[in-house]
Structure formats: structure tokens, C-alpha cells
Amino acid sequence: MRVLFLLLLIGCAPMAHASCRMDAPVRLADVGPVTLAYQDVGDPRNPALLLLMGLGGQLTDWPASLLAELCEQGYRLIRFDNRDSGLTTWRTPPETPWLTYNLLRYRLGLSVHAPYALQDMAGDALGLMDRLGIERFHVLGASLGGMVAQHLAVMAPSRVDSLTLLMSSSGADDLPPPQEGLRTLMTSRDLPSREEAIERQVALLAALGSPRYPAEQLELRRAVERSFERAYRPDGIERQILAVLADGNREPMLATLRPPVEVIHGTDDPLLPVEHGIRLAESIPGARLTLIDGLAHRYQSAFRQPLLNAILANLQRSATQGGLAHANGDRVQTGG
What is the pTM of this model? Predict the structure, then answer.
């Protein structure tokens, strides 16, 4: 009997690791006006962690080593391509308003016309969890994904066990703007060739990285080429930008958030300077703030451990607090 028990343990061990493979098949789910491309990784009996990617990002842009560790720590990972990115498709594509004109209106304090709202993107995420039959889940949102996650947590507070906001913002009007030149790199989409588009994206990723860890240009170029081979959606990026601009200040809404909330921000973020993270944490009752020294606005392996530590800490706080808000926020600064 003892030998049989040991054989069963040995036989089951590889299955646990196999369930955390990041090359799990990409599936499709019809949700509202879009067909979402998504990936479901990990044991379906484990607590679910919904991952919301940033502007123009694809589900494949999440760092595989970070996700593998989260999965091996006992979480089921759900990641998907947002509307207007990756392999997610429209049944009827919306029109794209003139981005330059709307950027001017935004700078003048006028209303911005967007073909959809961040609330719609949050509705996509909720619809996917409905399709998967997942009632309660944790949420990790990066950049734009963090903004969408804020709306999701307000729309379905009883379903969100914890909220982790990475490199994100409250959208307040008086926060510092991106560093000079970044806005041009992000909004100039009228490039005449694929090669020029790749070069522009490589330059953008290099600018979004930490100056303490200069990027290897060849490595960045290979990553961009892989991304372009999977999907290239310049019109979609413009529509996502418009949705962010039209959303405005979320601080009054953020005051209603109740799940355990962790705000993670880099001290060297050039797109959303560190004041965005500090203000975001201050806007949410009981939110915990972790500032990572040197982190910018792009994942780099040098920051893997502090990122992982902060994410897991919030997930584990939720388990001990039953999804209820903690009374007092904390502020932590950690090195890369």
C-alpha cells in the first residue's frame, strides 16, 4: 500500500507542473460585440487570477516566468486579448475618430469622442468570467489594464476578491504628464511600412524601460517582430487611447472600492510618473502602495522578484481577510 501511494504521488507530480504551461491553447469566447481570444492556465480548482493587459498589449506580452510562478503558487490564470488587440475580433468593427483632433480637444479641456468606454472593456472581462463560470476572482491590471480593473471592481464588487494595480493611474487632471517625446511615439501611427512601424515600437519599448537596465536592441526587436507576426492593430490602439482620454478622473469612483487593493508603481516610470501611483493609492480607502526603486513602465527581469512579492502579498492578504477591505493603507519602497 505504501509503494502504491508513493507511485501515485510520483505519477501526479508532473501533472501539476504541466497545468502551468504558458503555451496552453488560445480559445475563443463570444462576449457582447467581440470574440475574445483567451488562455486559461492552471488547475481549475484553484483561485482564479484575471490578468488585464495595457495599451495595445497582447496576452502574450505578460512575462511567462512571472505567470508561471503565480500559477505554481496555486492560482488559475485567465489572460486575454482586450478588444482591439491581439487575436480578439469585432463582429462589426467601430469607426475610429480622428485621434489628433481629439488629442487637441483633450488638451483644451474639451470632451473626447471615443467609440467605446473603459467600462465596456471591463464588461468584456466580466463577460469572459461569466462564460468560464468563474464567480469570484482576483484581478491584476497593468497600465490601461489597471484602469479597466478599477471599473471592473466597482461594477462587480462582490466578485472581486483582490485588486492589484500595476503602473496605473487615477486619471486625475493635475497629475504630471509623460516625459517629453513619449506621447509622439505612442500616437504616431501613420507609418508607411511595417519596417518603420517595428522601428517605432522598438524605440517606444526602449524609452519605457528603466535607464538603469538598458535594453538590448536586438532582443527588443525580436519581441516586437513576434508581436507583429501574431497581430498588428494600429487602429485598435488609437481607439484604446481615445477610451482612456474620454474616461477622465476616476477618484470619486475609487473612493467606493472595497476589496484588498495593492498599488505597485515604479520610481522611474516615464509614462505615468510615480506621482500617479502615489495618488492612486491615496484615492482608494485602505490601499497598500509598493514603490519599486528603478522600475519604469515595462517589465524587465531585474524587477521580477519585488513585483512577484508585492502581487503575492496582496493575493495572500485577500485569503486572510475574506475579500474585505483592510482598515489602513501601507506604503512600502523596495529595490529592484
Answer: 0.91
E-only strand ranges, 243-316: 261-266, 288-293
What CATH superfamily classification does 24-176+232-335 receive? Alpha/Beta hydrolase fold, catalytic domain (3.40.50.1820)
What residues form DSSP beta bridges with 64? none
User: Which of these, 239, 242, 236, 223, lies nearest to 88 by C-alpha position?
Assistant: 236
Q: How far apart are CA 45 and CA 232, in angstroms?
A: 35
Burial of 1 (0-12, 13-18, 19+ CB in 10 A): exposed
Per-residue pLDDT tens digits for 299-324: 999 999 999 999 999 999 987 765 44
Query: What is the C-alpha to C-alpha distance for residues 271 and 244, in angstroms, rounded to an integer?
Result: 14
CB atoms within 10 A of CB 6: 10
The average pLDDT across 317-333 equals: 61
| pLDDT tens, position by position, 245-258 | 999 999 999 999 98
pLDDT above 60 for 17: no
| 133: CB partners within 8 A, 6+ apart | none
Residue from 235, 332, 328, 240 nearest 278 by CA: 332
How many whole angstroms separate alpha carbon 260 and alpha carbon 240? 27
Cell output for 265 = 508603481
Contact (CB, 8 A) for 27 and 36 = no
